[in-house]
Design brief:
alpha+beta, seven-stranded mixed beta sheet, 15 helices, 19 strands, elongated
């Protein structure tokens, strides 16, 4: 052990503040927080050994506050810990020293703790297994008044040797930078072959048994997930596939919309025959349902799967940024103004009607129609930012809400 530097974790809240260690407090000013604070020091092994020879707790405390101990400190970092939410902030003095302090953190906190760190040196963080890059001004459980500008922040589960795919995290960073300083997020995406095949067949699914013994087709609903991040002509493109575990069936004319940032439901062939319609336009309930989960759960688009193709519903740029201004009156407006089911006009006519509708002077929804032979193409749409961030992956969005908002939707 001789000649090596060692790390020591000290309970700043109960030891440094509790015993009024003014020399430590004057030099290492605590982060502003109501949570528990720790500080990790790098000290020579000789100083560590001397500390361990002291039997009495008071002697150890006095030694930690002594000039000898303080002058021996080579590096340090603060940690802030919320034991109820199981979040640990790592507040670095020097970005290059993250690797130095991680073993002590791994050792002293359980594997279900989420680590948070702010650093513009992405290479070091990716090497250490950090993921979910996003912008933030301060930590989720501390307030750093000096850092008023957005910086690059990362998350990681507290597991040693946990690796991430470098290319995937770098693509997330590129997507983050692509949308930097833009008013809204733009996302390029395409559906996987298996996903397109499933969606193209879902309106033709075999009838199933009802309680009265009759057989009818049902509506289906589910969510999409990001399967892979692609690069096409220097653009980031998200490949969406089915989240099979979310798929449910409803009844002949309705199904619950599944919570998720991308979701879908189907209009079965029998419904066309029953109502003698040519097109399966989204109903007023489809628009109301999407708006509800967009407000409550952050859904960014909803696909209505029909015989003629897929209708993609998303919020307009204005209302995606101003959803907090909406109240229940908007649902009455939709019920009155968006009812075109049973109309036999063209799809182009319907699209023009929907996309020209305004609520309080602003377009409410953006509606796209995607023909079946276009479902293999790269598509795009816009959606609102979450505190300057563009979350196109549900896991990233859920992790962000959990860490910063203490919200768990899924």
């Amino acid at each position: 052990m001789k000649g090596k530097d060692l790390q020591i974790l000290i309970d700043y809240t109960n030891i440094v503040i509790g015993y009024n260690l003014t020399n430590i407090m004057d030099k290492y000013i605590q982060p502003k927080t109501s949570s528990d604070i720790g500080i990790i020091f790098t000290i020579p092994s000789s100083v560590f050994d001397k500390l361990n020879t002291l039997k009495d707790g008071k002697q150890k405390v006095n030694f930690v506050n002594s000039d000898e101990f303080i002058e021996s400190i080579k590096e340090y970092c603060f940690i802030v810990y919320d034991k109820d939410r199981k979040i640990c902030e790592i507040i670095l003095h020097d970005n290059l020293n993250l690797k130095l302090f991680l073993p002590t953190i791994y050792l002293n906190f359980s594997s279900d703790v989420t680590l948070w760190v702010k650093s513009n040196d992405a290479t070091i963080l990716i090497n250490e297994g950090f993921d979910d890059p996003h912008l933030c001004k301060s930590g989720p459980i501390s307030e750093n008044e000096k850092n008023t500008e957005n910086g690059l922040c990362f998350l990681k589960q507290n597991i040693n040797n946990k690796k991430v795919e470098r290319g995937v995290v770098e693509d997330k960073l590129k997507y983050l930078k692509e949308n930097l300083n833009k008013p809204t997020c733009k996302m390029n995406f395409k559906f996987s072959k298996d996903c397109v095949k499933y969606l193209s067949n879902i309106c033709h699914v075999e009838p199933s048994l009802n309680y009265d013994g009759s057989l009818t087709q049902k509506e289906f609903a589910g969510c999409f997930k990001v399967e892979k991040i692609l690069k096409e002509e220097k653009k980031i493109v998200y490949l969406l596939g089915l989240e099979n575990s979310t798929i449910i069936s409803g009844d002949e004319e309705g199904v619950e919309i599944i919570k998720g940032i991308y979701n879908f439901h189907s209009h079965p062939k029998e419904a066309y025959e029953k109502y003698k319609v040519k097109f399966g336009f989204p109903s007023t309930n489809d628009f109301i349902g999407f708006l509800s989960i967009s407000i409550k759960y952050g859904a960014i688009f909803h696909i209505v799967v029909s015989l003629e193709g897929c209708y993609l519903i998303s919020m307009s740029d204005y209302w995606s940024k101003n959803k907090s201004k909406l109240n229940r009156k908007v649902f009455s407006f939709i019920a009155k103004e968006y009812d075109y089911c049973g109309n036999s006009e063209s799809i182009e006519w319907y699209m023009d009607k929907i996309n020209s509708k305004k609520y309080q002077g602003y377009k409410l929804f953006d509606l796209q129609f995607i023909k079946w032979n276009e479902m293999k193409n790269t598509l795009s749409f816009s959606f609102s930012k979450t505190e300057e961030n563009c979350f196109s992956d549900q896991d990233e969005y859920v992790n962000y809400l959990n860490v910063y908002k203490n919200i768990k939707y899924w």
